[in-house]
Structure formats: C-alpha cells, structure tokens
Amino acid sequence: MSKELIRLENISKSFDGELILDDLNLTIHENEFVTLLGPSGCGKTTTLRIIGGFETPDKGRVIFDGQDITALAPNKRQLNTVFQKYALFTHMDIAENIAFGLKIKNKPQEYIEDKIHYALKLVNLEGYEHRMPESLSGGQQQRVAIARAIVNEPKVLLLDEPLGALDLKLRQDMQYELIRLKNELGITFIYVTHDQEEALTMSDHIVVMNQGYIQQEGSPEDIYNEPENAFVADFIGDSNIIHATMVRDELVNILDTDFICVDKDFGENKPVDVVIRPEDVELVPRGQGTLPGTVSHVIFKGVHYEMEVQAGGFEWLVHSTRMFDAGTEVDIKVDPFNIQVMNRPESEDEEAMVIDV
C-alpha cells in the first residue's frame, strides 16, 4: 500500500448544537482516489471542509504528511478545492483565471505561461486561453476550475460534488476525465458525492457515511459485493434486504425457506439480515428452484428486464436478461455465494454506527 498522507483522528464537529461528525477516524494514502459517499446531512462535506481547513473540528486532529495541520489556514495547506459552483472570475479570461493563484504567489511570468499551457492541455481546452467564462459550457467551466486548482501543484485535490450541476452525459464524460487526470497527475483526489454510480465508477477507495459515522470503507467491489450492514446495501445499488434466521453455519432461513449460504460464525438460530442483489436472483420454472413465487410486474430496461416477484410474503426485485410475463408462476434460486448475511442491529444507535460483520 502507498504511503499514508492524511489521517483524521477522533474528529467531532457540531453546528448549532447538532452533532455532525462523531469521533470520526479516517486514513487516506498517497495517489488514492477516495470518495466520501452518503446522503445529504451525513457529514461528508463537513469532513472535506475540515481537511481543507475551511472548518475547525471541535475535537480531534488533522495530520497531513506527518504534521498536525488542524489549526493551519487553508492557503497554507498543500491542497486545492474544486466546488460544485465553479467560482470563476467572470471579468477574467480563462488564462487569467488559471493564473490567479500563481500570480498571488509571485511566480515568474514565463513559469505562469508554461503552467497555463500545461493545465489547458491536461483538461483538453488548448486554445481557450482568451475565451471568457460565460462563453463556455458547464462542463468546460468545470474543467477550467480543475485546471486552476492543479497549476498550484497540490498534493491533494478536494472535489465537493463538482459534477452535480452538469447534465447526465456531461457528468459521465467528466467522470472519465477525472480518472484520467488523477492517473496523469499522480496526486490524491478526495471526492464528495451522494451519487453511488460516480463513486463506483471513479474510486479506488469508498468511504460510506451516515449520521456522522463511517458505515463502511473499502474498494468499490468490496462495498458493492460485501456490504457490512443494511444501510450500505440499500444505499449502494438496488438490493433485496430481508430479515432472516441463521440456522447454523452455511444455512440461513429466509422467509421460512432454508437456503444454503457460505457464511459462518453467526451462531445458531440467530436473527440476521440478508442482502441479495437483484442480478443474483435467478428465476426458474415452478418446481426447479427453492422458493415459489409469482411475477407481478415487468419493465424492460434495455440491458435487462426488471421484474417484481411476490414470494414468501416479500416483494423481490429481480434483474435478468430472461423475461417472465406478469402472472407467471416461478421459483427463486440463489447461488450460496450471492447470499450476504449481516448482523441485525439491535437498536437505532447501533444502526447509525459502524456495524462489524
């Protein structure tokens, strides 16, 4: 693993008596693309602003490259921030916008011109030096904001929902642009979003947050395939989340039907939650599966059919390239490896906090 760059230690923060972050700990390594993901109000933007120096924690420390920078002003930190609102200077052309920070640092003119050319080439806006911001599209303005940040050679680029104002196609294009930039620049990106697809597409490491706590962190594959609790499973993609009972190792009772699984060490006859992704539910003709059901709705989604199936008193969501008409009696089958068993939280407080599986 690469070198540790940022460490948040026991960070707590309140606004107007409301606790936003509660004893948060997080480590970020060099050259990672880290995404802070969660719903509005979960604390992700506050975490980013504390890293950037725009907010001071009530408790805890921010360690950057081995140094305590908790009280350091934003302009003294080796990082730059790109906001959702591009904040370009409308009275300056693109070159002047990009050069703004370098001029404040009294860099030589030749150096500044080289950096402008380099940054515009990186964001695919060569030849735009003398255009004014209002003449550019939203995606182009966002690229200028990124160019303005990277000419300062930060060790870390902070991005606070930078694609939120763009339409879907532009947002998807910019996702790939950001991945390319991160790889070419070799710097650490810390990205805030509530968009699960953005997080899964771009990240090396995802930090899922809710109610001021880190619910789970890991690779996109781990977060999607091995959610540690029902919140993560429900927030990252579509899921069938069902109360169940762990009968014994490798056997779980779901909706009064025994399913073979691969999980162990939950005990015997213990209440649990199970997560089964819609694409992992297999529909087969009646009599060939484990749990009988009836297809209630069918929608064609292009790459697959989305079906709702009533089975065991539960409405299952199923994604499949094989279509069964509404009203068809079917059986549900699930591969044991696709049944994710989780501890069931015993209280609302436990549900809000990290739940280890």
Helix proportion of residues, in percent?
10-25%
What is the averaged pLDDT score? Answer: 91
> Domains counted in the coordinates: how many?
3
Strand order of the biggest β-sheet: 6-7-8-3-9-10
Task: Report low-confidence residues grouped into runs of 5 or more.
Answer: none
Describe the structure.
- The longest helix is centred in the middle third of the chain and has 18 residues, at 168-185.
- The strands form 4 sheets. Strands 6-7-8-3-9-10 form a 6-stranded mixed β-sheet, with helices on both faces. A 5-stranded antiparallel β-sheet has the order 13-12-11-14-20. The chain has a 5-stranded antiparallel β-sheet with strand order 15-19-16-17-18, with no helix packed on it.
- It folds into 3 domains: 4-225, P-loop containing nucleotide triphosphate hydrolases (Rossmann fold, 3-Layer(aba) Sandwich), CATH 3.40.50.300; 239-276 and 338-357; 282-333, Nucleic acid-binding proteins (OB fold (Dihydrolipoamide Acetyltransferase, E2P)).
- The mean pLDDT is 91.
- Strand 16 and strand 17 (305-311) form a beta hairpin.
- The chain has 9 helices and 20 strands.
- It is α+β, with helices and mostly antiparallel strands and 357 residues long.
Summary, kept brief:
With 357 residues, this protein is an alpha+beta fold. The chain has helices spanning 44-52, 94-104, 109-122, 138-150, 168-185, 196-202, 220-225, 230-235, 348-352, and strands at 4-15, 18-29, 33-37, 59-64, 67-68, 79-83, 156-160, 188-193, 205-210, 213-218, 240-248, 251-254, 257-260, 270-276, 282-285, 291-300, 305-311, 314-320, 329-333, 340-343.
